[in-house]
Amino acid sequence: MNEGGLAHYLDENFLATDLDCDFGTLCEFSNSTICTFFVVHMNLTQTGTQRISEICGAVYDYLKFLAEEAGRCLNQWDQSNWDFLWNDDPHTFATYVQELKIVQESRFIDQPVHSAYVSTISLANMMHRVSKEDLYSGNFLVKETNFQLYHDLITRLSKQNLCIIWCAPDLTSSFDEDTRLMNERTTGLKYIACDIPTEVTERRLKERPHIRFSLPAKNRMIGEQFMQLPCSNDLKPPADYNAYDDRARYRDYGSLWIQASKDFENPRATFAIRITSAIALESVRNSTLLILFVEELRQTLSNKKRENYHKRMQYELSVIDGGFEIRVSGPSKQLREFYYSVISTAFRRTASMDVEMYESLRALVKSKLSQSVADLDILALNLFHFLTHKPAFLLTEQLETLGSITIADQMAFVTQLLCQLRITAYGRGDFDIEEIKSMYDRTIRSISCIPATSIREIRPTAIPPGTYHFEHENTGASNQQAFFGRYCISPESNAYFEAYNQAIVELLLKEAPIFFTDPTATETKVLVRYLRSVSVSRGPGAIVITVQLNAHSRLTEYLGSLLSAFWICVAPQIVAGVDSFEFQNARSHLTCKIRRQFSTVDRPFDTNWNLISTYDAEFEMAKLMITHVNGMTREKLLNFFVKNYVDPGCQKSIMLKITPPSKSTRKKPHSSSTRSAGEEFIRAHMKQYFAAAKLDCNTLNKHSNLQAAIARAYPESSKKITDTLTFRQG
Predict the structure, then answer these.
(1) What confidence score (pLDDT) does residue 144 get?
(2) Residue 488 DSSP one-character state
(3) Residue 215 backbone dihedrals phi, psi, to 5 degrees
(4) pLDDT (mean) for 258-284
(5) DSSP letters spanning 539-597
(6) Quick one: average pLDDT of 436-455?
(7) Where does the pLDDT of residue 199 fall: very low under 50, low under 70, confident under 90, or very high at 90 and above?
(8) CA distance linking residue 342 with residue 130, whole number of Å
(9) Using CA atoms, how far apart are residues 271 and 558, in angstroms rounded to an integer?
């Protein structure tokens, strides 16, 4: 209840308490002439019962005040003239609606999942009252904020001549017993209609509000206020039990994270264990042998006859960088026994393998690798990872190596792989903590391994500042699609960089596809995203812009230059030119996106396991990121972008070009006339985009140092990567 609000006014003047608002329907069907009404609830004090007209006047004054504020925000939404304390940031109508929208979305996200029966009944009721095009899953969420609609609606409410006052039976009426009351047929309500003279109504509508209302100050903690689970859950973050003194002998193996939870109606639990070995990262041959080993484990487990007792249990097996991961889930009372059966089957090695079975296994792995190579998105990510991390291996090299591997190689590799291991595990659910400890210990005994004395980890390649161009001809391509991508490497991966990088992506998502549109090309695919190129916390991620289009499109000839022009010349203008409303909207979307990304309500296990594996168990990552989002301004974001991603002395970018097999082995050299035509095409393309976009460049024009950095960076000179070995050595 803010000091300038209606509720505070009524309470301060001892007129009413417990003010509340709602809306309802006068009819069960959507085609009713009068379909909705706005209701104001309050509990009148003894004084208030004698001053009904004053209370009604205050309600209409507040509606008029909101109508004026809504009208003001249509043109100058980011300005406010309220007098607040020096450390308070006053709301405008627009920012207040945005804050309420965040609160509403947070409540919707964190609300419990209803049963199918309840959801079906609720959906049927909504379909009965609204048309199908107005129906969507988040029925209480505002998808797009229409301030013109708010203004029109509140203005209409403040000018209505009809007001129904429904009082409690114990409220003394000013009418005598002879007053003739009318009867409402449906509810049996007795009422009296009072006609207000027209001159009174007209005078009232023209008057300005007598009471000086104001909007509240902004809630600085709005982003993190709704990050926590409901208090009733009383759920603590996962704890590393191998860090405790009583498990010191297991500490050299790795971490054991445990989180007891009572979230489930039926007791359930999930346990995941990640096993890594330095052997798998020594060479491309070993990385291929690891893929074969994990696929063999998958086949062994799939052929295992599952007991009826374990029908409700589930398991997953996947390859990770330098190792593999096993995950089991299901009813808590069966988890430990089922996990024991899985690992005993997985690590029971036979003396030999049937040749026919091995050839079948190798053919399956070859098919999967070939599919990955044919997928341009997967191939591009693999190329970027290979260029920017050590050790790392190409899918194409693994595919070539696969044919020379024998059964003897496989058997020898497995023996070495399982000798020295790093083991990280996480258990969550309704279980006895001692059971999870025993599952971790049983894994070590089943494999009969010792802890890895030296940890060989994937690390970022030391790349000097600059832009590097790498071309790859995809001989495994089945279509004539070309791929162009710019991977802008983030200097760091802490909460500050994560928040600002994702904010940049949020602003570019809409504009990038417009800029790279080619009317002559079909099936053009433009993506802007922020990614972390490895599944473990081995350095920063990158902001990525990728374009896929037909290799014969005219745009392919200039696409590399267009990517440079967009990133250096256009993107800063987009960041600087976004209006205040759109920027606030982007921050709100980003806040909700971060909450969903790190939400422990929907998929708690996946979220925490990702934080353990990718963010070094920083369970406060979401809260830290949202704090940076709350303090973000256009100027701060613009400075961040130019400093880290445009300035030639700091920025690091990889330009990838993947083309289908060329029919001609000779490439035409770029003549001066061709280069001049390309520059003219780029200038014309940017001019056309800026004319349509109508960006506000005032913010960028105020910063001469940023303009100077952009001028130094464009036209951009890139270094071609011809020898990947030399490049990756740094």
Answers:
(1) 63
(2) E
(3) -85, 160
(4) 86
(5) S--EEEEEEEEETTSGGGGTHHHHHHHIIIIIHHHHHHH--HHHHHHHHHHHHHHHHHH
(6) 89
(7) low
(8) 51
(9) 50
Element at 625 (helix H, strand E): helix 621-630
- Residue 32: which pLDDT band, with cuts at 50, 70 and 90? very low
Strands ordered across the beta sheet of 466-473: 525-531, 542-550, 481-489, 652-659, 466-473, 718-720
Q: What are the tens digits of pLDDT across the range 577-629?
A: 888 888 888 888 898 888 888 876 657 888 899 889 888 888 888 889 999 99
Same fold, 6-219 and 463-575+636-662+669-725: yes
Q: What is the mean pLDDT of residues 647-673?
A: 76
| Closest alpha carbon to 585 in 510, 497, 515, 513 | 510
Kindly list the domain boundaries of the chain, sorted by start residue. 6-219, 231-459, 463-575+636-662+669-725
CA dihedral 642, 644, 647, 653 (to 10 degrees): -120
**Which CATH number, 3.30.830.10, 3.20.20.60, 3.90.226.10, 3.40.50.360, labels domain 6-219?**
3.30.830.10
DSSP readout, 502-550?
Answer: HHHHHHHHHHHHHHT--TT-SS-EEEEEEE-SSSS--S--EEEEEEEEE
Q: Where are the alpha helices (DSSP H) in 77-185?
A: 93-110, 116-129, 147-158
At residue 80, the pLDDT reads 47
Q: What would the two tokens of residue 646 be?
A: 């445009």
Question: What are the structure tokens assigned to 555, written together?
Answer: 């745009």
Determine the CATH number of domain 231-459. Answer: 3.30.830.10
- In this prediction the pTM is 0.69
CA pair distance 597, 606, nearest whole angstrom: 10
Contact between residue 686 and residue 565 where contact means Cβ atoms under 8 Å apart:
yes
CA angle 56, 60, 65 (to 5 degrees): 145
Residue in this structure with the two tokens 């089922």, named with its chain if needed: 338
Q: pLDDT tens digits for 109-136?
A: 555 555 666 666 666 766 665 565 555 4
Q: How crowded is residue 729: how many other Cβ atoms within 10 Å of its Cβ?
A: 10
- Give the whole-number percent of the chain exceeding pLDDT 90: 33
Q: Cis bond leading into 230, ω under 30°?
A: no
Helix ranges (H only) for 258-354 are: 284-303, 332-346
Task: Find out whether 638 and 700 touch, Cβ atoms under 8 Å.
Answer: yes
d(CA 622, CA 607): 11
User: Mean pLDDT over residues 306-316, rounded?
Assistant: 78
Q: Is the pLDDT of residue 442 over 60?
A: yes
Instruction: Tell me: pLDDT of 415 over 50.
Output: yes
Q: How far apart are CA 60 and CA 154, in angstroms?
A: 10
Rg (CA), the chain: 32
> 284-303 vs 407-417: helix axis angle to the nearest 10?
90
Which option is the CATH number for 463-575+636-662+669-725: 3.30.70, 2.60.40, 3.30.830, 3.40.462?
3.30.830
Distance CA 347, CA 296 (A): 11
Considering only CA atoms, which of 561, 524, 541 is closest in space to residue 652? 541
Q: What is the pLDDT of residues 153-185, one digit of tens each?
A: 777 777 655 566 666 555 555 556 666 777 766
Contact status, residue 66 vs residue 47, Cβ threshold 8 Å: no
Helix (H), strand (E) at residue 686: helix 672-693
Q: And the tokens for 289? A: 């042998």
